Amino acid sequence: MNILAALNWRYAVRKFSDQIIPEDSITTLMEATRLSASSYGLQPYKILLIKSSDIRQQLLPYSYGQDKVANNSHLVVIASHTNIGDQTVERYIDQYVATTKQPAASISGYSEHMKSSLAQMTKQQQQEWAHQQSYIALGNLLTSAALLKIDTCPMTGFDRKGFDQVLGLNQQGLTASIICALGYRDSQDLAASKAKVRFNYQEMVMEL
Predict the structure, then answer these.
(1) Residue 104 pLDDT more than 80?
(2) 25 class by beta-carbon count within 10 Å (0-12 exposed, 13-18 middle, 19+ buried)
(3) What are phi and psi of 143, to 5 degrees?
């Protein structure tokens, strides 16, 4: 399936079947999500892959009646870091050194630039910036899933504090940004046959 066919095929599933995504497919999808772009490459979030049906049931009361949170193959929660600052950059520098075998001093100027940029933000702006990076990862997750013929339903309507509590995110310096149910569409899901409503190319794309 080419990318345009895949994107036309996908939709926000209303009802998932009982079919479970194979382990190799879910691993590929998580790897694709892990490889997402982010501002400065800092990736200030964690990707939680929730396989446990018990945990998904515990999250249901905080999902505003969206039973897809519990009734799916897997649930993904992308949770942003809550402590943004110098340590965010230093975490990246450690990974840079480990990956490239280059000394930290080789990008000291870039390191200071990143720290300065984050320091200019208020705490609220830093948190919003981290949430924005999570949305980039979500976009990659949705597209990659479509190419793998895995169905998705992203959701922003949930009680963040409730999710944080159930998943113990506060203790890990995290807070839920967005959730996405994964699986395969149920044959009785009428939404699958509805026309995809998108503005056309001329409306959406400005060629300058």
Answers:
(1) yes
(2) middle
(3) -65, -45
pLDDT in tens, 52-102: 999 999 999 999 999 999 999 999 999 999 999 999 999 999 999 999 999
Residue with tokens 């203790």: 171
Measured between alpha carbons, how far is residue 33 from residues 37, 133, 165 in Å?
9, 12, 24
One-letter identity of residue 133: Q
Q: What architecture does CATH give domain 3-84+121-204?
A: 3-Layer(aba) Sandwich (3.40)
Q: Give start-end residues of each CATH 3.40.109.10 domain in the chain.
A: 3-84+121-204
pLDDT in tens, 123-178: 999 999 999 999 999 999 999 999 999 999 999 999 999 999 999 999 999 999 99
Alpha-helical runs (H) found in 42-122: 53-59, 86-100, 108-119
Eight-class DSSP state of 155: E
Which residue in 112, 109, 150, 170 sits closest to 13, CA to CA? 150
